[in-house]
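Lines hold sequence, tokenised fold; shown next:
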Amino acid sequence: MAESDRLRWRCRRGMLELDELLVPFFDRRYAELEDADRVAFERLLEYPDQVLLEVLMERMSPSDPSIAHVVTEIRRAVIPAT
């Protein structure tokens, strides 16, 4: 299994809300990210599901600015503007 396949698999969390954010972002934007943003995205995937959901729903802010930047990119790429 290629590294990108493993990483995409890690995006599948089994929680619908997370799957609908992470998998499309990975498919659409991950390849375009700068190396630092890729590292931050992989660190974001280490969060427990409930924390990850809180961060992606903007109910909790990550203390790491690089992860906060990736969260913004995920939301911008996947959540339609209202």
About this structure: DSSP finds five helices and no strands in the chain. Helices lie at 3-11, 16-29, 35-44, 49-56, 65-78. The chain has a mean pLDDT of 93. Residues 1 and 7 are 10 Å apart (CA to CA).
